[in-house]
Amino acid sequence: MQVHRFEKVWLGAALLLIVGFIATVAYGSVGVGVAMVDDSGGQINAQAVQSGNTGTQFDDPGVVREGEDHYAVYVVARQFQFVPGSGDDPIRVPADAKVTFRVTSADVVHGFAVVETNINTMVIPGQVAEVSARFDEPGTYGLVCHEYCGAAHHTMGGSVEVVP
Ligand code: CUA
C-alpha cells in the first residue's frame, strides 16, 4: 500500500501536535521555562516534614542568609497555611537581593504564588520546589495557594514583605 505524500505530512503534523499538547500539560506554556511540576530543590520525606524531623532547615522554616546578596526562604505549606507567610507571620526579605524560595508540603498538593511576580510553583509532598527571584520594589506582596487543597483552600494565603 502506498501512503500519499501529503498524508504523510499531515500524519507528522498531527503527531507533533499531540507531543506539543502533552509537553504543554507537563511544563506549562512553552517558552516560559518554568516547569509546573518542580522538584528542582530535591526530594524530602513529607512525613518528616509534618513531624518536623527532616534534619533540614524545614524543621525551623524561615529566612536564612546564604551569602552577601542571597537569602533563602524555607516554607512549609500545610492545610491551610504557609509557615512562614500566613497570619501574622509574613515572609520578610530585603529588596534588591537574590531570594530563593524553597517550598515543600507537609500534607497534600498546594500552590505557592506571589501575586504580581512570576513566582509560581506547585508544592508537592515529598518534593522541594525551588524558585529564585529579586524584588526591586519594597512593599507587601500577596501570597496565595492556587491548587485546590481542601475545604479551606480559598483561605490559604499570606504575604511577603519586601523591606528596603
Ligand atoms: Cu493550599 Cu490550596
Automatic annotation (TrEMBL):
<dbReference type="InterPro" id="IPR001505">
    <property type="entry name" value="Copper_CuA"/>
</dbReference>
<keyword id="KW-0186">Copper</keyword>
<dbReference type="GO" id="GO:0016020">
    <property type="term" value="C:membrane"/>
</dbReference>
<dbReference type="InterPro" id="IPR051403">
    <property type="entry name" value="NosZ/Cyto_c_oxidase_sub2"/>
</dbReference>
<keyword id="KW-0479">Metal-binding</keyword>
<dbReference type="GO" id="GO:0005507">
    <property type="term" value="F:copper ion binding"/>
</dbReference>
<dbReference type="InterPro" id="IPR034214">
    <property type="entry name" value="Ba3_CcO_II_C"/>
</dbReference>
<dbReference type="InterPro" id="IPR002429">
    <property type="entry name" value="CcO_II-like_C"/>
</dbReference>
<dbReference type="Pfam" id="PF00116">
    <property type="entry name" value="COX2"/>
</dbReference>
<dbReference type="InterPro" id="IPR008972">
    <property type="entry name" value="Cupredoxin"/>
</dbReference>
<protein>
    <submittedName>
        <fullName>Cytochrome c oxidase subunit II</fullName>
    </submittedName>
</protein>
<feature type="domain" description="Cytochrome oxidase subunit II copper A binding">
    <location>
        <begin position="68"/>
        <end position="164"/>
    </location>
</feature>
<dbReference type="GO" id="GO:0004129">
    <property type="term" value="F:cytochrome-c oxidase activity"/>
</dbReference>
